[in-house]
Amino acid sequence: xxxxxxxxxxxxxxxxxxxxxxxxxxxxxxxxxxxxxxxxxxxxxxxxxxxxxxxxxxxxxxxxxxxxxxxxxxxxxxxxxxxxxxxxxxxxxxxxxxxxxxxxxxxxxxxxxxxxxxxxxxxxxxxxxxxxxxxxxxxxxxxxxxxxxxxxxxxxxxxxxxxxxxxxxxxxxxxxxxxxxxxxxxxxxxxxxxxxxxxxxxxxxxxxxxxxxxxxxxxxxxxxxxxxxxxxxxxxxxxxxxxxxxxxxxxxxxxxxxxxxxxxxxxxxxxxxxxxxxxxxxxxxxxxxxxxxxxxxxxxxxxxxxxxxxxxxxxxxxxxxxxxxxxxxxxxxxxxxxxxxxxxxxxxxxxxxxxxxxxxxxxxxxxxxxxxxxxxxxxxxxxxxxxxxxxxxxxxxxxxxxxxxxxxxxxxxxxxxxxxxxxxxxx
Length: 427
Ligand code: ASP
Ligand code: MG
Description:
Helices cover 32% and strands 24% of the residues. It has 427 residues and is an alpha/beta fold. Helix 1 links the parallel strand 1 and strand 2.
């Protein structure tokens, strides 16, 4: 008998039928003799709809109230799920984040879990109940207010519960069969991975893969939680996300050989800002990125050109989340004369493609394959950045899907059949 934490995303509980299907899955796990703790997301696009509604009554909703509102989405699904399980003859009890002991920082909308005190969950388990916890939310001890963990936060709830309860596995259910070598919606020939290293998973998640959220993977890595990403719509084995020293249960040793390229991630959520005519003297980059950081924008890639000898000026481009572009542009414009640049150009029609693989550390020629594939496809590269196990390029947004497909083929990642996508929007 094991303790299994399961997380179901919004598309898995989108309507009454789906909730009943999930309830059945949970009951099946219970019938197999396991203790089950479930973290559940809000139904379908509830969170987006609530955000929308908030925007209609207030241009900038008060953060405390927004968290009160958004946290209600998960309360709806948790109660419905518990009811569905009851009607199948099993004992289930739902808990809000605060009842479950999810203690967080006070940052509304982006709170971090600092402690988990699952006293009531333990009691319920000891009494033989299936435990359902509202994902994505917690409670701050100082303000005594409800907080939310940021979009996609239910993954983190599940992993934090698994860590606190020392669960045997944390199963994250979504509408795809596991972690793929690329987003199957973009690259139909994407293949499901049976295992992926947590380090690779972090890079994939940080660079646009939406199947698991980065904070959840980080938390799992730090606390040694074993993640199994699976589909709500099939019973097949999904993908095991393995941290240092972890192995797949019943898995074979040879699977752990590090692939040169584990996967290709795509991200259409970025914008590019170019600062034209920056004086090429010491201190300018520091000045610029201090201003950008102070604006609250989150910079990703940075490229600085060689300065033109005649002018002693250079261009600096950087990428950032689309939603951060306005504040960064405003902050830079305000200090234009102080920095002394000529012009700002904002481009939100870019796409970022990243190739990730732990084996890159020890293999050469990995980037040449990427550039060659793009060149044959006639796709222009606008920016390049690398880390130890990742190469990323920025291309035109319109070219991104095609770029992902040719690169996926070039690294020999294509599967024989098209991947199955069961429902929803990827969450
Ligand atoms: N319902 C929240 C969201 O849509 C949390 C989650 O789904 O994980 O972001
Ligand atoms: Mg959701």
